[in-house]
Amino acid sequence: MEKLIIHIEASKDYYDGYAVNVDGIYGAGSSVEECKVDVGRGLRLMIESAAARGDRSLPEWLMTGNYVIEYTYDLPRIVSRPSSRRREKVTGYV
Predict the structure, then answer these.
(1) Span between the terminal Cα atoms of the chain, in Å
(2) Which superkingdom, per the lineage (predicted)?
(3) Residue 39: exposed, middle, or buried by beta-carbon count in 10 A (0-12, 13-18, 19+)?
């Protein structure tokens, strides 16, 4: 089983996530959880679109669902985000 690695970091206004090991998978949200949900939507859309077009550029393990998602976090940027904008407390790695 393969790992899809999603890295989540914070900017001034939102949290953003992207796949480290597969190009084109992104998401954003006002909280870490919203970001994860948005990344999941983007991932499903990418897989469905590629399957509908017969596009074979995505890894086979991604197309067949033979993967787990591993989240990594840029904790210094997330924790140092101004508290007036922080909506979610992140305490560790998943």
Answers:
(1) 18
(2) Bacteria
(3) buried
Q: Give residue 77's pLDDT.
A: 78
What are the structure tokens assigned to 8, written together? 């989540």
Domains of the chain: 2-79 (3.30.160.250)
Yes or no: say if 79 and 90 are a contact pair by the CB < 8 Å rule.
yes
Q: How far is CA 54 from CA 40, 46, 49, 50, 66, in A?
A: 21, 12, 8, 6, 19
pLDDT digits (tens, 9 = 90+) for 1-10: 999 999 999 9
Model-level pTM greater than 0.70?
A: yes
Predicted pLDDT of residue 85: 45
Q: What whole-number distance in Å separates Cα of residue 30 and Cα of residue 22?
A: 23
- Are residues 42 and 28 in contact, defined by beta-carbon separation less than 8 angstroms? no
